[in-house]
Amino acid sequence: MQIQVVKSKIHRVTVTGADLNYIGSITIDEALMEASNIVEGEKVSIVNINNGARLETYAIKGNRNSGDITLNGPAARMVQKGDIIIIISYGILDFEEAKTFKPTLVFPNEKDNTLT
């Protein structure tokens, strides 16, 4: 049996932009993507701390060390600049492997989304 488990999490980052006219996705600072083990194009879940909204989209690289966290396309309607969100990706593992798997968790500075 296989189960879905948390693979990566960027915990509590501040939304820096919302671009309704972009084709979709979430733009994430490249340094945060690397630190959290999230790759470009990977499906991610977004949880908005401010309003409780939950959505799924895919990750694209933002400029390294920019602190950029921008929701694009329809997802832009679910956030406002300044909202605090959690970004989560999942992996599918065999049940026994999942018991010992350790996800990559990143806790950036909420003020500027940098790693400290």
TrEMBL record:
Organism in which the protein naturally occurs: Flavobacterium macacae
Residue positions of the active site: S25, Y58
Key word Lyase present: yes
Gene Ontology cellular-component annotations: cytosol
Protein name: Aspartate 1-decarboxylase
Swiss-Prot/TrEMBL GO biological process terms: alanine biosynthetic process; pantothenate biosynthetic process
Keyword match Lyase: yes
Similarity remark: Belongs to the PanD family.
Main location: cytoplasm
Highest taxon above the source species: Bacteria
Localization of this protein: Cytoplasm
Pathway assigned to this chain's UniProt record: Cofactor biosynthesis; (R)-pantothenate biosynthesis; beta-alanine from L-aspartate: step 1/1
Gene Ontology molecular-function annotations: aspartate 1-decarboxylase activity
Substrates-to-products reaction catalysed: L-aspartate + H(+) = beta-alanine + CO2
Top-level enzyme category: lyase
Post-translational modification: Is synthesized initially as an inactive proenzyme, which is activated by self-cleavage at a specific serine bond to produce a beta-subunit with a hydroxyl group at its C-terminus and an alpha-subunit with a pyruvoyl group at its N-terminus.
The protein's required cofactors: pyruvate
Role of this protein: Catalyzes the pyruvoyl-dependent decarboxylation of aspartate to produce beta-alanine.
Binding-site list for substrate: T57, G73, P74, A75
Subunit structure as annotated in this protein's UniProt entry: Heterooctamer of four alpha and four beta subunits.
Keywords carried by this UniProt record: Autocatalytic cleavage, Cytoplasm, Decarboxylase, Lyase, Pantothenate biosynthesis, Pyruvate, Schiff base, Zymogen
Enzyme Commission number(s) from the entry: 4.1.1.11
